[in-house]
Amino acid sequence: MVEITGHQFGWEFRYPGTDKILGKKDFKLTTTTNSLGVDFNDLASHDDIHVSGTMHIPVNVPVKMVINSQM
């Protein structure tokens, strides 16, 4: 699974870490240092991988993409 967040001029991607679970998000937690509003009180979010720019996914493997936008 890849969570994709669209911004006015780019994309941010969040991949689950070794636990294979994406942590919770809440738009109320969005700040300049937490642009996606990730809830770091949720232990599942501690190993999530957050990148901007280019999405990387495996070849010939189905991938669920959760796409949302941020205003």
How would you briefly describe this protein structure?
This protein has 71 residues and is mainly β. Helix content is 0%, strand content 30%.
Task: Return the string of H and E elements.
Answer: EEEE
Helix content: under 10%
Number-wise, the strands total: 4
Number of helices: 0
Which ranges are low-confidence, i.e. pLDDT below 50, for 5 or more consecutive residues? none
Sheet/helix structural class: mainly beta
From the spread of the alpha carbons, the general shape counts as: globular
Detailed description of the structure:
The two termini are 23 Å apart. Strands 3-2-1-4 form a four-stranded mixed sheet, with no helix packed on it. 0% of the residues lie in helices and 30% in strands. By secondary structure, the protein is mostly beta strands. A hairpin with a 2-residue loop joins strand 1 and strand 2. The model has no long low-confidence stretch (mean pLDDT 92).
